Amino acid sequence: METIEYNGWFTLQWHITHRCNLRCTHCYQDDYTAFESADALFDVLGQYETLLRENRFKGFLNITGGEPLTHPELFRLLEEAKKRGVTTAVLTNGTLIGRVEAMRLKACGVDYVQVSLDGTEKTHDAIRGKGSFARAVSGIHALLAQNIFTDVSFTAQRENKDELPALARYCSDIGVDKLWFDRVVIPAAEDEKHLSLTKEEFKKLSRQAARLNRRRMVSCARALQFIPCKSKSVYRCTAGDRLLTVLADGSVMACRRLPLVFGNVRETELAAIYRDNPDLIRLRQTPLPEACGKCRYAASCAGGAKCVTYAKTGRYDLPDPDCPLL
């Protein structure tokens, strides 16, 4: 049997539906389309397999939405991906997961499930809707009862920026496997509610997270968080290189938070878009920002998060504006 030398992992973040049972204040969805049928889902899964084969990548499929649990074919897709040897994870708001759904996710062999919590109950409900915190936590308990690795995602914004310590204690108490945080990303011209963190706010939050990380209560694995945390694991943005996103209307993006569309899988094969689209090639070949040239983290960090840079400056080839070293 031939031994394949892989070139590493390639992640596809796939929004199989834009439908959702919640209406969050920071949500960027403005339509509610979906890949309606199992055949449509399996077609995109096949396109992903072709991309993996052509480039000798191992596949990691993050299935999300909208809310993926609203899609009637979610479990069939997970089962099919398992048959084809593609590793899967589900990114969810957690509110539709009960004992039965958790058991089905376990049977489908998902690698992990990520649930979004945006603070303690009062704050989370203010952002995501009354009662959503209790339902999400119920979902977390159901997942943990099935021994599914469960992580919690905290999206830091102006409304909840002080909630991380309390949420970290809560997640630790209920046995969550991992808590991580990231910045909300909203283009400056569209941030009417001024939800985006300032550089100083992000710096303060990162220092807070570093203290919690030393107690193993928060993961500091995202862009620039490694600096106050003094982590040896330095985040590098792989958007367009080892990461692509497919939306429910078929649009292909490098990252959901970087609002640039490079094609559509309903019209062009995913592998061809990855291989041939000149704008996507230009993105993944973006050189190190000049201002980062002398930084000791330059080779591994490569300038921070392109999505944040684009949201705040309109360009992705500049240094992350929130970098505390600039």
Provide an overview of this structure.
This protein is of the alpha/beta class. The chain contains twelve helices and nine strands. It has helices at 38-55, 74-83, 99-107, 121-128, 132-145, 164-174, 199-214, 226-229, 270-276, 278-284, 298-301, 306-313; strands at 9-15, 58-64, 87-92, 112-116, 150-156, 178-183, 243-246, 251-255, 258-264. Helix 1 (38-55) packs parallel to helix 9 (270-276). Strands 6-5-4-3-2-1-7-8-9 form a nine-stranded mixed beta sheet. The longest helix is centred in the N-terminal third of the chain and has 18 residues, at 38-55.
Estimated structural class = alpha/beta
> Helical region count?
12
Beta strands, count: 9
Largest sheet: 9 strands, mixed
CA gyration radius, whole angstroms: 19 Å
Strand content: 15-25%
**Spatial order of the strands forming the largest sheet:** 6-5-4-3-2-1-7-8-9
Low-confidence stretches: none
Shape: globular
Helix content: 25-40%
- In whole angstroms, the N-to-C terminal distance is 52 Å
Order of helices and strands: EHEHEHEHHEHEHHEEEHHHH
For the residues shown, what is the average pLDDT?
A: 93
Summed up, what is this model?
This protein is of the alpha/beta class and 326 residues long. The chain is built from twelve helices and nine strands.
